[in-house]
Amino acid sequence: KITFGGKDSIAIPPGAPAISDPVEMAVEDRPQLVVSTFLPDETPLKTFHWDGRSTAWFADGDLTRAAAFPTANKTDARILLSEVLVDTPNAGAVVLIGDSITDGNGATIDADARWSDFLARRLAPRRVAVLNAGISGARLLDSKMGVNATARFERDVFAHPNVKAVVILLGLADICWPGTILDPDRSTPTAETIIAGYRQLIAQAHARNIRIIGATLTPFEDALKGTPLGDYYNPAREAVRQEVNHWIRTSGAFDVVVDFDALLRDPARPTRIRAEYDSGDHLHPGDKGNEAMAAAIDLTALLGR
Predict the structure, then answer these.
(1) Strand 93-98 vs strand 129-134: parallel, antiparallel, or unpaired?
(2) Residue 228 has pLDDT above 80, yes or no
């Protein structure tokens, strides 16, 4: 049973977090936890993680003690709960800042098959935690699906204890959203504008003595083809991606570079994701692609030791 100041319930002020009392419960590495909440009144849903990639159920009445949930009503969004804090001695944490690729869109639901999950498996023996701060649709420069990366760095990276490194995989939505139905009135930013955004993140991380790893932007030709976002790709956007990736690889600005573009691209058609790594929408890696991304990271370079 979760309590708040010893009480069974809490009223949360608008925009504020609520932290429960500690729960005495031993857990293994990377466990599945189910947390049940009861809302006594109709509650508009203002806070949620819509691409949570794990099933949640909801029904009428107080079912917080139910062993089985007698309902077919479910969602793969994560509602209300934002994090579980675990009191354990460890060697630090790595934070992944990204968009839908990091968030796990394209990964099998309830399978822990995001690239963050595969990286967590690799880092568990080193007692290093992985925190996934991916938001589907998130952008480096602009706020829409979540606030822009510079604005959320404090909350999503620096507010966590003992962060050793942060991996940045952001910028593709900045390049591809403008001019589509998602952002029809904005034009594609230049590579120089995106690079300036990266430099700000690098400066913030280094000011806190945190290593920052830059990941190249992944191939996206034919992305979301046959959907209302079938115009996601065009040669002009591809040119910006290539220029940004060249800077990431060659500038030396990041402490480490992870070349996800080289890893995921089809050798016969480098602007498109390899079939075996494709979730099917030609934008998001599937489970195999996510596993390959995690495997491509040099853990010694990541942690600096």
Answers:
(1) parallel
(2) yes
